[in-house]
Amino acid sequence: MAEAFIVGAVRTPVGTRKGALAAVHPADLGAHVLKEVVERTGVDPAAVEDVIMGCVSQAGPQALDLARTAWLSAGLPETTPGVTIDRQCGSSQQAVHFAAQGVLSGTQDLVMASGVENMGMVPMGANVQFAIDNGLSLFGDGWVERYGTQEISQFRGAQLMAEKWGYSREDLERYALQSHQRAAAARDAGYFDKEIAPIAGVSRDEGVRADTTLEKMAGLAPLREGWALTAAVASQISIGAGAVLIASERAVRDHGLTPLARIVQLSLVGDDPVYMLTAPIPATRRALEKAGLGIGDIDVTEINEAFAPVPLAWIEELGADPATTNPNGGAIALGHPLGATGAILMTKLVHELHRSGGRYGLQTMCEGGGQANVTVIERV
């Protein structure tokens, strides 16, 4: 049976919306991590058969097939094509899935999975602005017939989750504080150093607030009157890129590559698009069942902290160990550069498994439309 291996995983530091990375063109962000993976692995870049890049707001500087533009911007061979994909927040995790599936199918040997988003240069929603400006619906008649005209948004979905699982504002803020504390501790201990490729003079994640407190969070206004959600319990608007090189057994042998992890399971599930953010729960159940594993077998989990209710409900429903779930903080502290986050989380997961000596890692994230990817890997 064919195997697929992760042989390189690199990310930029995650920048804040108005930080030092705000002026870096998305193609240059992507080029930076693509080139870094090539250099760190020593692979012949001409042997890379495709570049699959996640990007959500494909408008302006992020339009025109950013994957291809980034690869060429890195000075890499013109013979390698690229394709840019959008599965909302899971775009670059889906890029990992597509790359691994190409290798597992036997049709490809080396595929680069990546993701980029500069939310300072290209605001979230820029790619739907034309519809808004021209009074066009984002949903067709069939959607309206099925779901009505109720609000469909990640913000409402997070609030609905908080209400369904009974999480108070204080519950959410305690989780958010933990995210910052874990991220600050990991950063200061140098846990991220090996996975980060510094750029534009930035070598550390910009969004971590080591000095935040529950008292400071309590002073923020809710996102909407009566809601438990505030900006403190949501992921930060961010800038970043990540890249993961997937290789077959033949490519590992022929190119003298060193596997970091083996792909164990790739799963994808859809759930209620109104709640939107709940799909990691059934998706994880399916992935574990297919992999023949239990939640207790997972040594490290990276679940995207789009909003605090997402990991809290996932932990509760799966019976997961909170200590091994986002052990080095998540997007509440480190940021969420939309299309890049999947590749960034996979990079974090691979390096944390090697640092901690764990065997199995699991990555999952909620996505627009009520979807979730789950990737299970085994450290090599």
TrEMBL record:
In terms of SUPFAM superfamilies, this protein maps to: Thiolase-like
Q: Name one GO molecular function term.
A: acetyl-CoA C-acetyltransferase activity
- Which EC number(s) does the record attach to this protein? 2.3.1.9
Which protein, by its recorded name, is this? Acetyl-CoA C-acetyltransferase
Q: What class of enzyme is it?
A: transferase
Q: Which organism is it from?
A: Nocardiopsis mangrovi
PANTHER family listed in its UniProt record: ACETYL-COA C-ACYLTRANSFERASE, BLR7806 PROTEIN
Entry's family note:
Belongs to the thiolase-like superfamily. Thiolase family.
Tell me the first and last residues of the signal peptide: none
Q: Where is the Thiolase C-terminal domain?
A: 257-379
User: What InterPro entries does the record point to?
Assistant: Thiolase, Thiolase-like, Thiolase_C, Thiolase_CS, Thiolase_N
Q: Give a yes or no for keyword Disulfide bond in this entry.
A: no
Domain (Thiolase N-terminal): residue spans on this chain:
5-249
Which keywords describe this protein according to UniProt? Answer: Acyltransferase, Transferase
